[in-house]
């Protein structure tokens, strides 16, 4: 079983300010905090003589840990062009969050949750792909931002530990009844908040280098306009993406994914505000270049969209155990991939013989799946595949997977599928409350000694 319940994944985290992107991520443990209009100089949070500010069970939290976390929050707010808070107001919230994180990490380690190097490698690769760079460039930028590689990987390890322990401890607390689904659907028939809009945009990006002259910029603008003319004439947008776009991922026709409008850059939202599904914007200028945007989906965030892109895939699942480590499982699946790609073996036959999932008897077949049906790490890897392509090994909470995408289609959800989507939406809403309750209970069982105030 690889169906999604609710997961806190790296895709929900943020990367360092130097990796800001429309879909960008930043590694960090801080939640979004209330900001004031006071903006402190960067030097205010520089390193200084260190001291212990709190003890969590037997582990200390130091003043410089708090200051480094504050620096990350300020960098992220600056990258988002949001007002920065007074660090004297921010510091207690950051310390409180670090205490909670420390308690959760201790629980994870004490209860035997482990993270192998292969899982960290996969997380690193995922972040690089989300930011449309390779792993070497990701590491270069992290080092440039003053974070040693060992520290960066330690942060990733902690994030995965947190993800796994939260999944294990919280998901069993979340239940959605059929009555709740009925009530939700009935409410949405009578009221709909039009301000909560979901968008799925596809883009053609004509990149403009920072050093481009005005003549070069004008030539690149004309290139974007040529793409626009052909798109409006009815040419296949995915084909135009491959021909004109300077992005590195063409497997999904340039689509950026369905999300709340607030999670898109403001200029993208403004450019498509008056457009209907299927319409195409005039070229939009950003620091990255010129964007030609097509509206793929548009609807209310309160109800699942009726039309979705579904994926038909199959997989081979190996579950690590005392006899098979995670690294060995990855290597075994890499060997299977080589056999399939070279034509020496059939994917379905390998799945029937080796897969430890219930789908093995069907050759690993998972059928047609709508977005959100699989756990995020599995779905993210599947979404990057072209039909017929086989993934590298993917680590999820269930084990290690080898995925083959068979085909994609656009489909209209049945009433039963829409109910499933509403059920998943309600689970996500309930998950946040369940998580807060669990975190508070854990905090109540944790010995915390506050010493000198931070800063």
Indicate the CATH topology of the largest domain. Triger factor/SurA peptide-binding fold
Low-confidence stretches: 1-44
H-E order: EEHHHHHHEHHEHEEEHHEHEEHE
Question: N- to C-terminal separation?
Answer: 48 Å
Which shape, going by the Cα principal axes? globular
Radius of gyration: 24 Å
Discrete helix count: 13
Q: How many E-type strands?
A: 11
Which features does this protein show?
single chain, four-stranded antiparallel sheet, 3 domains, Triger factor/SurA peptide-binding fold, disordered N terminus, Chitinase A, domain 3, 455 residues, alpha+beta, 13 helices, 17% strand
Model description:
Strands 4-3-6-5 form a four-stranded antiparallel β-sheet. The longest helix is centred in the C-terminal third of the chain and has 30 residues, at 415-444. The chain has 455 residues and is of the alpha+beta class. It contains 13 helices and eleven strands. Residues 1-44 have low confidence and may be disordered. The protein has three domains: 10-172, Orthogonal Bundle (Triger factor/SurA peptide-binding fold), CATH 1.10.4030; 197-300, Chitinase A, domain 3; 307-412, Chitinase A, domain 3 (Roll), CATH 3.10.50.
């Amino acid at each position: 079983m690889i169906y999604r319940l609710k997961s806190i994944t790296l895709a929900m985290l943020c990367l360092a300010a130097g990796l800001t992107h429309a879909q960008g991520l930043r590694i960090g443990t801080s939640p979004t905090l209330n900001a004031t209009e006071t903006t402190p100089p960067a030097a205010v949070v520089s390193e200084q003589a260190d001291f212990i500010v709190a003890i969590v069970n037997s582990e200390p939290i130091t003043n410089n840990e708090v200051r480094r976390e504050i620096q990350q929050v300020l960098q992220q707010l600056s990258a988002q062009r949001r007002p920065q808070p007074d660090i004297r107001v921010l510091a207690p919230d950051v310390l409180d969050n670090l205490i909670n994180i420390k308690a959760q990490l201790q629980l994870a380690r004490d209860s035997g949750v482990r993270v192998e190097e292969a899982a960290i490698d996969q997380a690193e690769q995922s972040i690089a792909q989300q930011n449309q760079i390779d792993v070497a460039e990701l590491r270069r930028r992290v080092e440039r931002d003053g974070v040693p590689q060992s520290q960066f990987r330690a942060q990733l390890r902690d994030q995965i530990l947190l993800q796994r322990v939260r999944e294990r401890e919280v998901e069993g607390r979340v239940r959605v009844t059929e009555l709740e689904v009925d009530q939700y659907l009935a409410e949405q028939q009578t009221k709909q908040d039009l301000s909560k809009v979901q968008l799925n945009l596809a883009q053609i990006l004509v990149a403009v280098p920072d050093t481009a002259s005005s003549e070069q910029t004008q030539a690149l603008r004309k290139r974007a306009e040529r793409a626009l003319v052909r798109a409006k004439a009815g040419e296949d947008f995915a084909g135009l993406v491959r021909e004109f776009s300077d992005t590195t991922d063409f497997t999904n026709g340039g689509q950026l994914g369905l999300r709340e409008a607030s999670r898109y850059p403001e200029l993208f939202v403004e450019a498509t505000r008056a457009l209907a599904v299927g319409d195409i914007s005039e070229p939009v200028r950003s620091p990255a270049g010129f964007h030609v945007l097509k509206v793929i989906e548009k609807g209310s965030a309160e109800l699942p969209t009726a039309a979705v892109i579904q994926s038909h895939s199959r997989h081979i699942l190996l579950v690590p155990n005392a006899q098979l480590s995670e690294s060995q499982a990855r290597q075994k699946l890499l060997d299977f991939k080589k056999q399939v790609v070279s034509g020496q073996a059939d994917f379905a036959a390998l799945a029937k013989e080796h897969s430890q999932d219930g789908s093995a008897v069907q050759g690993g077949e998972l059928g047609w799946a709508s977005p959100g049906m699989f756990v995020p790490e599995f779905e993210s890897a599947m979404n990057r595949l072209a039909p017929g392509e086989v993934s590298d090994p993917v680590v999820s909470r269930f084990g290690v997977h080898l995925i083959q995408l068979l085909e994609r289609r656009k489909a209209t959800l049945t009433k039963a599928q829409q109910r499933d989507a509403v059920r998943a939406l309600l689970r996500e809403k309930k998950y946040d409350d369940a998580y807060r309750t669990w975190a508070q209970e854990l905090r109540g069982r944790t010995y915390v000694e506050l010493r000198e105030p931070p800063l």
